[in-house]
């Protein structure tokens, strides 16, 4: 450990499946050698990358240098498509070597990895996919929950990747990466979390249901749905405007340098899909009915891989070269 970096023991060390009790967290931890700060609370406010409790703060020079970095070409028509359960799923694949699978956060797409894919692809085979309902993937009219995306990524790894891989997730994608690791332990060799979101409500935890009265069933619920549709319809119309997207992005990026036309279009274009408004309604009503389990401010707080991509790329490449290249049977995790 370098003299400029003080490390505290990681608070989160293991994640277990309730059935298998199998740990997917590492015996070894990546420890970047850049100047560090200990406080994760400060990290969440000021921005940076964290590896199991170690934070590496992005500097202004790092933010400026990204302008000259290699960037994934923006293709309005998308890259590759795979059919899953009758739905079209968009994905990107670049590079050769051991595979990495990148999973974006809420409201984003594969293009949110624009500065990461080209750099990581120099040493690895990089896959990035759009979760169902987001990006260039179909806006399916289904009942969305976290397990839908878990199943999607597990099948993507089985049918497209077809070999052991490291799974990388940001925000909502971080939670998905963890559930994929539990659901597909034989194919997940490591997990990297970039400002991961919290857990969704587990389907196995059934809430006690109270008997509905006739008034609740036939009057209150229909009126509530109508109200939600009107309000959320207006909010979606407002949220999909490019100027509004830019404003929101600047409020959630600690460093808004990279909030540009590319990023705004990568979010606004999928919102023009005819089914996008209905998908938004279904996603948001699930959030609204489980507010204690998932909140948008926790999901959309910070995007280190796009704000300080050089620092994130370096931390990931260092961790991959030390931990994943060892080919040991024990799964490993990186928390950024």
UniProtKB/TrEMBL annotation:
One of its GO terms (cellular component) is chloroplast. It comes from Capsella rubella. InterPro entries: AB_hydrolase_1 (IPR000073), AB_hydrolase_fold (IPR029058). This is AB hydrolase-1 domain-containing protein. PANTHER family: ALPHA/BETA-HYDROLASES SUPERFAMILY PROTEIN (PTHR46438), ALPHA_BETA-HYDROLASES SUPERFAMILY PROTEIN (PTHR46438:SF2). The lineage of its organism: Eukaryota, Viridiplantae, Streptophyta, Embryophyta, Tracheophyta. It holds the Pfam family Abhydrolase_1. It comes from the Eukaryota. Residues 99-206 form the AB hydrolase-1 domain.
